[in-house]
Amino acid sequence: MDAIEELQGLLKKLPGMGEKSALRLSYHLIRTDESFNKALGNAIATIKEKIHPCPICGCYTEHDICSYCSDGTRDRSTICVVEEPQDVLSIASSGAYNGLFHVLGGAINPLGGIGPDNLTFPELIRRIEEGSFKEVIIATNPTEEGDTTALYIRHLLEGKDIAITRLASGLPIGGDLGYADKLTLMRSLRGRIKF
């Protein structure tokens, strides 16, 4: 195996990267300035040392507490529950939501070996019981796993004096929050419905 094949093989392991794209990117990196390649390699090599989940919400951060949890101007009466840390950025960048977040770390997927015990439900319940939240916005992906997770959250919150809402239509079925545009996310947040 030569160096190009080795690089292509590694790049193919990235999400959304097929064989042709990996080869195209490999050739691009060969033509690219060496200082860029070294900086890219260093950024990749040190990312796990620099970034960690926020101990409060689970969003990725370089600091002790993420910028969302430490921001005193955010609405502390609403909490938006998402599957993955990148979903936080998608929703926050829409500009339509200014509350707090909670990252589950995935969605319930029994066939994939992910059950409720593998996600951060206990931390979510603790935050709700210790906080002064009036609304929980369930922003799981509109997939079977996301819907199952949303139903589970609703079940966990039964009997609690808190409004439970789910993102409204506008997000494509089977889609991923990370690929939704800002306008779609803004409409989904503004048009959320009681769940």
From TrEMBL:
Residues 77-172 form the Toprim domain. PROSITE patterns: TOPRIM (PS50880). Keywords: DNA damage, DNA recombination, DNA repair, Metal-binding, Zinc, Zinc-finger. Pfam families: RecR_C, RecR_HhH, RecR_ZnF, Toprim_4. May play a role in DNA repair. It seems to be involved in an RecBC-independent recombinational process of DNA repair. It may act with RecF and RecO. NCBIfam families: recR. Belongs to the RecR family. This is Recombination protein RecR. It comes from Candidatus Ornithospirochaeta stercoripullorum.
